[in-house]
Task: inverse folding
C-alpha cells in the first residue's frame, strides 16, 4: 500500500514537472528554393519530441508546445532533399522559419543546414552566418563582419575596427550590401583603427545594423555569381528579419557595446503585415553623458532601424526598411604642453559621422515557376574630421566626405524544369561623392564633387545533368558613366557530385570595381603632363577557384579550396614610385595615378566545420596564401602587398550543458576562439627625414618589413534561462584573454623623438544581459 502511494505521488510530481516545463510554438513555411512556390503536404517534424505536422495549401505549418532548448526540425518532401535544421527554442519568442528545399540530384542522405534558406552544402567561396551564431561565437561584438574573421582567408587588419582583408586584398576592395543592393559603409566611427585616424570606405568600430534586426548574412570571398558585382575582395550581403506577424514580442539588451530595445509584431493579423524596430545607444556614450570619466576620448553612437513586411494577396510581398545612425569621437587634449607624452597630445581631434539608409523590396510570383524581385535603396554617409593644434587653435586640418548611393536591383528568375532555370537582371547604382581635405600648412588638399551611373545587366543559366553535374553559365556587363568605362565579365561554375557525400567544384569569373571616391580627384599635375584623374578606368581581376567538399556526417563537413586571383588595371603612382591602390586604406591624397598596376593572390584554404546539432560545435581552418603586386610592369609581381601575412589559423569551438528544472530550463555555454595570423607588411621609416619634418616619413612606398605575428584568444561564457513567459541570457565575452600585445602600426613620434609601436586592443571584458518576452 505504501509503495503504491509513493508511486502515485511520484507520478503526480512528474506530471506537474511536465506541465510546468516551458514550451514554445514553432511555425513557418516550406517552399521550393528555386521558384519560391509553396510545397503542399511537406512533413515537418521535431525529431526528438516526435511531434510532426504537414504544410497546408499555402505551404505553412505550425507545431505548438515544443519544449524549449536545442531542437532539430526535420523537413521531408518527395523529390526534394531532406534537411535537418538546428533551432534554439526559447520561451518568450516564437520560432518562425521560412524554409526552402532543393530538389534531389542523387540518392542523398539527410543533410543538416545552418539556415532555413540554405541548400545542402555551402556553395564554393561563400559562407552564411546566422544571427544565432553571432550571439554564440566569442567576442564578435554581435557584428557579422567580425564573424567573418573566424572563416578561412579572412583577416582583421586591426581589432579596433571590423576592417577585413579577404584573400590578401585591400579592405577597400570589399562591398557592403543590404537586401541585395549596394550601400555605403554601414559602420559607426568609420575612422577607427586607421594609421592616420582618417575615414575608410569599408569599415568602422561597430555595425550600424543591430543584430536584433538581422536575419542572416551571406559572405562571398571570390568568383561571385553574375548578380554580384563592383567588388574584387569580399562581399557581405545582409538580410533583414521579418517581425512576428501574429503576436507582439520585445527584446532588451544591455552590454558594454550598447543598450538595445527592440519591438516587433503584427500591423494587421488579417494581411500578415508586421513591423520590427530597434533603437540602440552606446553604453560608453551614455556613461559619458552622465559625467563618468571613460578615458581620454569620448566615443558615442546611436542608431535606429525599422523593417516593415507588407504582404498582399495578388500584388506580391513588399517590404520597407530604414536605418539611421550617428557616431562621434572627440579627443580634447590638455592645454599644459608639459603633460604631452605623444604626438596626438598636440591636437584636439573631433570626428563625427551620420548615416541614412532607406529602401524597400518587392517580390512577385509570375505563373507557377517564375519570381520577379526588385530591391531599391538610398544610402548616405556624411563624415567630418577636424584636427586643431592646441598650441595654435587658428591652425587646423580637416576632412569632409559625403558619399551617396542610390541602388536598384531588378531580376527575374524562371524555372523551366526541375533541372533547368535561369536568372536575368539589371543593377543600376548612382554614385555621388564629395570629398574635401584641408591639410595644415601649404600642403595641397582634395576638392572634388563627382557623380557617375553604374549600369550592370547580368544573366545566368543553370543546368543540372543526370550524372550529378551542375553547370552555371552567365555574364555581367559593366558601364560607368563618369569615366565611360565598359567591361564584359563572363562567369562559369561547375559542380560535380562525386558521391552522395563528396563534391568537386570549379568557378571562374572576371570582375571589375570602380575606384574609391578620392581617386577621381583632378590633381595638380607635373608640368607638361596630363593626369585627369576622372579618366581612371575600372579595377579588374580574374578569379579562379577549385574546391573539394567532403561530408563525413550530416553535421560535419571538410572543405578545401585553392584559388588564384590576377588583378590588373590597378591605379598606381607615377609620381611616387611603387605606390599602388592595392595597398590603400584610409582617405589620402594619391598623386598622378594611372591604370598601370597588377597584382596576384594565390592560396590554399582548409576548413572543417561541425554544426551545433547536439551539444557542441567546431570550426577549424587554415589558410596559406601569397599576395604580391607590381607597378607599371616592373618587379614582375615581386613586391609584397601590405596585406601579405602568408598564413591564417583559426580554431573555434563551443560546448553547452542543459539543466531542466520544474518551471525553467538552463543552458550553460562555453565558447573559445584562438587566432594566429602572419604579421602584415609595413613600410620602413626614415628616422632622419622624419625628425627633420616632425612627421612620419617612409623610406619608400614598398612594404619590406613583416610585423610580429598576431595572436589572440577570445572566450564567451553564457547562461540562458527559459521561463514560462520570457527568456534571459547573461554572457561574458573576453577579447584577447591573454592580453597579448599585437602590433597595429609603427610611427615616428616627434615628442618622444623615436619610432613608437602602436598596439591593437588588449584584454577587454564585455558583460551583457538580454531578455526576450
Result:
Amino acid at each position: 500500500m505504501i509503495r503504491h502511494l509513493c508511486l502515485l505521488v511520484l507520478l503526480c510530481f512528474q506530471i506537474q514537472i511536465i506541465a510546468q516545463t516551458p514550451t514554445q510554438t514553432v511555425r513557418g513555411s516550406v517552399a521550393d528554393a528555386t521558384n519560391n512556390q509553396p510545397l503542399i503536404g511537406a512533413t515537418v517534424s521535431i525529431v526528438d519530441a516526435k511531434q510532426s505536422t504537414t504544410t497546408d495549401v499555402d505551404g505553412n505549418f505550425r507545431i505548438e508546445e515544443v519544449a524549449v532548448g536545442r531542437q532539430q526540425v526535420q523537413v521531408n518532401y518527395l523529390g526534394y532533399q531532406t534537411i535537418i535544421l538546428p533551432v534554439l527554442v526559447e520561451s518568450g519568442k516564437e520560432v518562425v522559419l521560412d524554409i526552402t528545399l532543393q530538389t534531389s540530384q542523387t540518392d542523398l542522405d539527410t543533410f543538416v543546414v545552418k539556415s532555413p534558406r540554405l541548400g545542402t552544402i555551402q556553395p564554393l567561396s561563400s559562407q552564411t552566418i546566422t544571427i544565432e551564431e553571432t550571439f554564440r561565437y566569442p567576442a564578435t561584438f554581435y557584428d557579422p563582419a567580425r564573424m567573418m574573421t573566424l572563416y578561412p582567408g579572412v583577416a582583421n587588419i586591426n581589432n579596433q575596427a571590423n576592417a577585413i582583408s579577404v584573400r590578401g586584398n585591400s579592405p577597400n576592395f570589399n562591398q557592403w550590401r543590404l537586401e541585395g543592393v549596394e550601400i555605403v559603409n554601414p559602420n559607426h566611427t568609420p575612422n577607427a583603427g586607421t594609421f592616420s585616424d582618417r575615414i575608410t570606405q569599408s569599415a568602422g568600430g561597430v555595425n550600424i545594423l543591430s543584430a536584433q534586426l538581422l536575419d542572416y548574412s551571406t559572405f562571398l570571398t571570390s568568383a561571385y555569381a553574375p548578380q554580384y558585382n563592383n567588388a574584387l575582395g569580399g562581399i557581405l550581403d545582409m538580410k533583414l528579419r521579418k517581425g512576428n506577424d501574429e503576436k507582439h514580442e520585445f527584446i532588451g539588451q544591455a552590454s558594454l557595446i550598447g543598450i538595445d530595445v527592440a519591438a516587433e509584431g503584427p500591423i494587421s493579423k488579417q494581411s500578415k503585415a508586421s513591423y520590427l524596430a530597434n533603437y540602440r545607444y552606446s553604453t560608453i556614450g551614455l556613461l559619458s553623458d552622465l559625467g563618468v570619466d571613460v578615458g581620454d576620448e569620448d566615443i558615442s553612437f546611436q542608431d535606429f532601424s525599422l523593417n516593415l513586411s507588407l504582404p498582399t494577396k495578388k500584388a506580391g510581398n513588399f517590404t520597407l526598411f530604414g536605418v539611421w545612425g550617428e557616431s562621434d569621437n572627440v579627443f580634447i587634449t590638455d592645454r599644459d604642453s608639459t603633460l604631452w607624452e605623444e604626438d596626438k597630445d598636440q591636437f584636439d581631434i573631433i570626428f563625427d559621422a551620420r548615416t541614412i539608409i532607406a529602401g524597400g523590396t518587392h517580390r512577385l510570383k509570375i505563373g507557377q515557376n517564375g519570381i520577379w524581385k526588385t530591391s531599391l535603396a538610398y544610402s548616405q554617409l556624411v563624415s567630418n574630421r577636424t584636427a586643431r593644434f592646441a598650441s595654435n587653435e587658428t591652425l587646423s586640418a580637416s576632412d569632409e566626405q559625403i558619399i551617396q548611393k542610390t541602388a536598384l536591383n531588378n531580376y527575374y528568375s524562371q524555372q523551366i524544369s526541375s533541372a533547368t532555370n535561369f536568372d536575368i537582371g539589371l543593377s543600376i547604382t548612382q554614385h555621388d561623392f564629395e570629398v574635401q581635405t584641408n591639410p595644415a600648412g601649404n600642403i595641397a588638399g582634395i576638392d572634388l564633387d563627382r557623380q557617375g551611373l553604374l549600369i550592370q545587366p547580368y544573366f545566368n543559366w543553370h543546368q543540372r545533368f543526370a550524372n550529378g553535374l551542375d553547370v552555371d553559365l552567365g555574364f555581367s556587363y559593366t558601364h560607368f558613366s563618369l569615366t565611360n568605362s565598359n567591361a564584359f565579365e563572363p562567369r562559369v561554375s561547375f559542380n560535380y557530385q562525386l558521391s552522395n557525400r563528396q563534391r568537386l567544384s570549379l568557378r571562374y569569373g572576371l570582375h571589375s570595381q570602380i575606384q574609391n571616391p578620392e581617386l577621381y580627384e583632378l590633381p595638380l599635375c607635373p608640368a607638361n603632363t596630363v593626369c585627369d584623374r576622372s579618366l581612371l578606368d575600372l579595377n579588374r581581376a580574374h578569379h579562379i577557384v577549385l574546391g573539394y567538399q567532403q561530408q563525413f556526417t550530416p553535421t560535419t563537413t571538410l572543405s578545401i579550396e585553392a584559388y588564384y586571383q590576377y588583378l590588373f588595371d590597378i591605379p598606381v603612382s607615377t609620381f611616387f614610385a611603387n605606390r599602388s591602390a592595392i595597398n590603400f586604406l584610409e582617405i589620402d591624397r594619391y598623386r598622378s595615378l594611372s591604370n598601370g598596376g597588377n597584382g596576384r593572390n594565390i592560396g590554399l584554404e582548409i576548413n572543417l566545420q561541425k554544426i551545433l546539432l547536439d551539444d557542441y560545435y567546431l570550426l577549424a581552418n587554415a589558410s596559406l596564401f601569397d599576395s604580391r603586386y607590381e607597378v607599371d610592369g616592373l618587379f614582375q609581381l615581386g613586391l609584397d602587398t601590405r596585406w601579405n601575412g602568408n598564413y591564417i589559423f583559426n580554431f573555434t569551438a563551443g560546448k553547452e550543458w542543459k539543466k531542466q528544472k520544474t518551471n525553467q530550463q538552463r543552458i550553460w555555454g562555453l565558447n573559445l576562439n584562438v587566432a594566429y595570423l602572419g604579421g602584415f607588411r609595413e613600410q620602413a621609416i626614415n628616422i632622419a627625414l622624419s625628425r627633420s619634418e616632425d612627421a612620419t616619413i617612409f623610406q619608400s612606398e614598398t612594404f619590406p618589413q613583416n610585423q610580429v605575428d598576431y595572436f589572440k584568444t577570445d572566450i564567451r561564457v553564457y547562461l540562458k534561462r527559459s521561463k514560462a513567459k520570457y527568456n534571459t541570457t547573461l554572457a561574458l565575452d573576453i577579447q584577447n584573454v591573454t592580453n597579448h600585445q599585437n602590433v597595429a602600426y609603427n610611427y615616428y613620434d616627434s615628442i618622444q623623438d623615436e619610432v613608437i609601436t602602436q598596439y591593437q586592443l588588449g584584454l577587454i571584458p564585455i558583460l551583457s544581459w538580454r531578455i526576450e518576452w
